[in-house]
Input
Amino acid sequence: MVNAFALPGGYIIITTGLIKFCETPEELLSVICHEIGHIEKRHVVSRLVKDIGLSLLTSNDPYVSGEIAKELLSQGYNREQEEESDLFACELLLKCDLEPRAMASFFRRLKEKNENGIYDNFEILSSHPNMNKRVKNVLAFKVPEGFTAKESWINIDEMKKRVEQ
Output
């Protein structure tokens, strides 16, 4: 499964499938930065308050805690929050002197992997924006004139070897 998601407390879960799917360190970092965006913009908490309610969130009941965890894993963010996190990721990558538009290549390959096309025609049913729209938005992100991306400090091939072990 190619996925990553943010949890309350600032935790980010990254699947081994995501690491294997990424072709460059910048692609992996763009997804991580996207999830950081959900945390920084407080999408996790706002979604929980909306979906579950503040009184349940403060409960010490183990059953309630388990239900909250299931809700977090099964529900997505809305399209506006996804677009906001995409923009946040581009800005954060730029601050790190990394190529922010690397996310576009990740989205293109993800779209090809899920090429049945149903989500492109029925964006209204999906929590995530249309992949073509996401690619377009990322490619439209303006980098300062004269910007030169630095090489990432992550060795993606080494990471892939380690997740295979």
Q: What stands out?
A: Residues 46 and 53 are 10 Å apart (CA to CA).
